Amino acid sequence: MKKINILFVILIAFIAQSCYEDKGNYDYIPSNKVTITNIESVYALDITSEDSEDLVIEPKLEFESKPLTNLTYNWIINEKSVSTEPVLRISRSTITEKCSCRFEAIDPSNGNHYVFDFNIKLNSSFEEGWMLLTDNGAVNHLTFISPSVEEDTKSSNIVYKAYPNIYEKSYGTSLGTEAVRFVEHWSSSYETNLANVVLVKHDSEGSIDLNGSTFKKESNTSDYFVGNASPSGYKPIDEVYLSEASFILNEDNKLYSRKMTSPTLFQSGKFMDEPVYFEKGLEVGMFVPAVHLVTYCGLVYDKKNRRLLYADGNSQIHEINYNEYTDGQTHFDDLKKDMVTGFYYDMEPGSWGKKTKFTVVLNDNGKYSVLDFKFSFETRWGMIGGVFCSKTKLYVKEFKEFDLNVNGLIAPESIIYRPKHRSYMYFSNNDKLYAYDLKVNDTPRLLFDFNGGKISAIASGVKSNEIGVSLEDGSFYIIGSTTEDIAKPTNKPIYKYEGKDKIISVMYKYGDKYNLDLQ
Amino acid sequence: MKNYLIVFLLLIVGVISSCSKEEVPVYDSGRYLHYTKTVEDSLFYSFKLNPGLDQDQVAIEINLIGKLLTEDQTIKLVVEEEFSNSSEVLYKLPENPVFHANKGKDTIYIDVYKPTIDTDSTRVFIRLEANENFTPCFEDKQVFKLIVNNKLSKPDWWDGTIVDDFLGDYSDTKYSTFIEVTKVSDLSEKDESEIRALCLKFKYYLQKQLEQGNSILDEDGTQMTVPVVG
Questions:
Q1: Which residue of A has its CA nearest to B165?
Q2: Measured between alpha carbons, how far is B181 from B173 in angstroms, rounded to an integer?
Q3: Cross-chain CB nearest to A270 (options B5, B197, B229)
Q4: Dihedral (Cα; B49, B50, B51, B56), 10-degree rounding
Q5: What are phi and psi of A73, to 5 degrees?
Q6: How far, in Å, CA of B199 to CA of B193, rounded?
């Protein structure tokens, strides 16, 4: 019995010792603490800079006790080892995206790693500025005009730098032909505030989505069709990006829709290969989106039935219900006139895109008129079938209609443009640019005379204090458009760019989404 | 004393047994066959889901365990059980099914025929039988259940999401109209965009028919509608 007891105790002791924490009893060598200096936590590279010098990082190592002489090194960029030299030398052109980086000094005698983490971020001159789309008859080019603030001791001036033919120069390939226009579009990602730019191309390969920093091609939107094949007769003339839905308008006036599956991405979800259908059929002549990002809706002009509809964020088309017309006013569901153009021009502050204002220009056999109204999406709560629920409905408010008092100055080939947050509308008459105050509905005011150069495109710049006007001869003007500029026209541009090719489209690239929210 | 001894011996046995090495069985000789699906994963073939066809073939995958064949070898298939309310033969097994050389997985094809009467149905259990070339293995994968008919039933993919966001409540009439319009009967492998596209195509069809004065009615006599937005 006693022996058994002893054996039992020994066995328990063996089992218990396996659970005992080993505190150790060894000889420790005191560590030689190493401090790494002379590396910045963030390096900012201007990817559009013509400076081709390598990025050189030369770290310094300080040792707590004696210097270690047999260290090895490792430079890691985005989890990939790029160098084992003590000094990093890397070509700027090889950095094409934001990088997480690490420098490691390794003591091979004991395997100790001494590390320093840092980042390389990219700045670009292409983030904000004017984009010009040109056509020389054989190929399209992209020219970027970058504004930057130049400060001296007395004042600060905006200086402009032109980057002609930037896509071909950067990537060695052509943009191809049949480009129509640019469309800037944002994602709801917290990772980036910068927009991408879609170059809408009127060919079967379709539009291309360009990176907002580099203009590098990221995708073809024609790749985003169900079944990975664009529909027959596919030739886009416009693309529209609402907050969670997007549309492609084809040259045959068919509209293709998709619901974004990941609005944090620039492109997600697939376009339906069958065009959107709406009661009585649909031939979309124009699609006017409200403010980007928080876009709740877009105005859709159905030229087949000469009516105005709206598309919501779920890519659904709806009728515009309004029944407060006075005698003789144009009805949304039966315009009896052609829509010439339309603009989203204002948003009620704090409404997050739910209260937006539009101007629509109509033409009735040479007689031009304007519809001006506010879309107000309002949510009402109530009990339905014993359940407390909400319903959002569109209300049309501040509906106005008036003829344009332009004395025949607007012709079918006129370019018309209404900037955001301004009561003015601009229009061209061959080589002359007019400003027209829609609030006063007075006679047009000659803002600029281009003396023979025919106007080909108009767009407004940041905060609508300047407008960009291009001419068919390839020149581009930035013109002041503040209330003072319009009251006292000087016929002097803020900036003039002289290109050779015909400019077919102009867009001010807002870049950062917070630039846009200011608008 | 006796109790201590028993406890002690059990403990020793427990400790020793934890160190024993279990041999992993390997198929070092012979060849074994089994279906890739279990008998619970029955194959349901409805001609309603394949409009326009009067006969078709269903594919059944078979796995080989053992050395690959150097030349094709015959497989033996037997009908274990059959339940049918049809006077017609709605299926036909392959006459000389073979497992092909140099393959670890092969497919056999069973002919299926559309019943003349829509309510007719056949359910058949097909067993892999041992022969001179193969031995069946895995008890639950030796029998395959095939159902052939011309009926519709609510598919598994027509779940709450499909009801709420795309097609609404299920009915045989709605399902067969959907198949007729889209030529698609199975949405289980489709992504959200593809499902949306197919459901919108169906919605537009219903809208166009209604505008042409041809109202498509559901089983309860009401206008057929779907909730998909777009």
A1: A314
A2: 12
A3: B197
A4: -140
A5: -130, 155
A6: 10
Cross-chain residue pair B230–A11, CB shorter than 8 Å:
no
- Which tens digit of pLDDT belongs to each residue from B151-173? 888 998 999 999 999 999 999 99
Burial of B63 (0-12, 13-18, 19+ CB in 10 A): middle
B230 vs A contacts (CB less than 8 Å): 257, 259, 272, 276, 314-316
Residue partners of A17: CB distance under 8 A and separation at least 6: none
Confidence of residue A384 (pLDDT cuts 50, 70, 90): confident
How far CA A59 is from CA of A89, A91, B56, in Å, comes to 12, 18, 72
Q: Cβ atoms within 10 A of the Cβ of A174, count?
A: 13
CB B208 within 8 A of CB B200: no
Residue B41 and residue A55: Cα distance in Å, rounded? 61
Strand ordering across the sheet containing A255-259: A236-241, A245-250, A255-259
| Residue A276 vs residues A224, B131, B177: alpha-carbon distances, Å | 16, 59, 20
Q: How many beta-carbon contacts under 8 Å exist across A and B?
A: 57
Largest CA distance in chain B: 97
The per-residue pLDDT for range A30-54, each reduced to its tens digit, is 667 788 999 999 988 877 776 667 8
pLDDT score recorded for residue A297: 87
Q: Assign 3-state DSSP to chain A and report helix, strand, coil percentages, each to 5.
A: 10, 45, 45
User: In this predicted structure, what is the pLDDT of residue A110?
Assistant: 84
Pairing between strand B98-99 and B55-65? unpaired
Q: Which residues of B touch A7 (CB under 8 A)?
A: 8
Q: How far apart are CA A187 and CA A246, in angstroms?
A: 12
| Cβ neighbours of B197 in A, within 8 Å | 226, 270, 272-274
What's the maximum distance between 2 C-alpha atoms anywhere in chain A? 123
- Cβ of B5 within 8 Å of Cβ of A314? The answer is no
φ, ψ for residue A160, nearest 5 deg: -115, 140
- State how far the Cα of A238 lies from the Cα of A255, in Å rounded to an integer: 10
- The mean of the pLDDT values for chain A is 89
Alpha carbon of A349: minimum distance to chain B alpha carbons (Å): 29
Residue with tokens 């997600």: A268
Would an 8 Å CB–CB cutoff place A254 in contact with chain B? no
Locate tokens 């007689």: which residue? Answer: A367
A373 alpha-carbon distance from chain centroid: 26
| Contact predicate A233/A248, CB 8 Å | no
- Long-range CB contacts (< 8 A, 24+ apart) of A485-491? A485/A447, A486/A424, A486/A435, A486/A445, A486/A447, A489/A445, A489/A446, A489/A447, A489/A448, A491/A448, A491/A449
Indicate the burial class of A234 (C-beta count within 10 angstroms; 0-12, 13-18, 19 or more).
buried
Burial A330-356, CB ≥16 within 10 A → b, else e: bebeebebebbbbbbbbbeeeeebbbb
Give long-range contacts, CB 8 A cutoff, 24+ apart: A250-253. Answer: A250/A275, A251/A202, A253/A282, A253/A283, A253/A284, A253/A285, A253/A303, A253/A304
Residue B82 bridge partners (DSSP): B124
Q: Residue A287 corresponds to which tokens in the numbers above?
A: 């699609």
Q: In A156-262, which residue ranges form alpha helices assigned H by DSSP? A: 166-171
Phi/psi at A496 (5° precision)? -135, 130
- Strand boundaries in A230-303, DSSP class E: 236-241, 245-250, 255-259, 284-289, 297-302
Instruction: Tell me which residue in B4, B192, B204 faces A4 most closely, judged by beta carbons.
Output: B4
Q: CA A326, CA A218: separation in Å to the nearest integer?
A: 50
Q: Are B229 and A226 inside 8 Å of each other by CB?
A: no
ipTM above 0.85, yes or no: no
Residue of A nearest to B208 (CA): A279
Facing residue for A258 by CB, picked from B1, B193, B208: B193
